[in-house]
Amino acid sequence: MTENVIISIKGKQLYAESSPDEMELVTSGTLQRESGGGYTVSYQESELTGLEGTTTKLHIEGPRVTLLREGNINSQLVFEEGIRHLSMYETPYGALSIGVSTKRMRSTVDEAGGDLEIDYAIEIDNLVAGQNLFRMNVKKNPALRQ
User: Fold this and answer.
1) CA separation for the pair 115, 132 (Å, rounded)
2) Which of 122, 97, 117 is nearest to 107 (CA)?
């Protein structure tokens, strides 16, 4: 089952030395139920996010969310509450090894859509580089039936 959806994303990044950086994006995408019981939300990045030419997929499987970016930027981030995961993050200047520590994660995503919220810290060279709050709302788009 693949549904066309409207995806609303709000992100906030907090850095020790500067004011919060906030981003908001509304885009179309797809919601797909996976054979293992999880869900995948997929959308194309745009100029607004600085990731134009990149497809973002969020695999939501129980207590774990995996964010995959493929295209001009390639990365994989794994979010699991209370667990620190090491990931590779590709930038225009080269790849970085980063740690992702998820403080809190909540998901109500199912075949009807729903909400995903992830509160996490990013570490570079074992130093916290910023605290992030990611919120996503997924709604079926009745105007775009597949």
Assistant:
1) 17
2) 117
| 132 and 119 Cβ atoms separated by less than 8 Å | yes
Query: In sequence order, which residues have a C-beta less than 8 Å from that of residue 17 and are 6 or more positions away?
Result: none
**φ, ψ for residue 108, nearest 5 deg:** -120, 20
What would the pLDDT profile of 88-132 be if each residue is shown by its tens digit? 877 777 888 899 999 999 999 999 999 999 999 999 877 778 899
Q: Which CATH superfamily is domain 2-140 in?
A: Calycin beta-barrel core domain (2.40.128.20)
What are the sequence ranges of the domains in the chain?
Answer: 2-140
DSSP H or E stretch at residue 76? strand 75-80
In this structure, are residues 33 and 44 in contact, taking their beta carbons and an 8 Å threshold? Answer: no
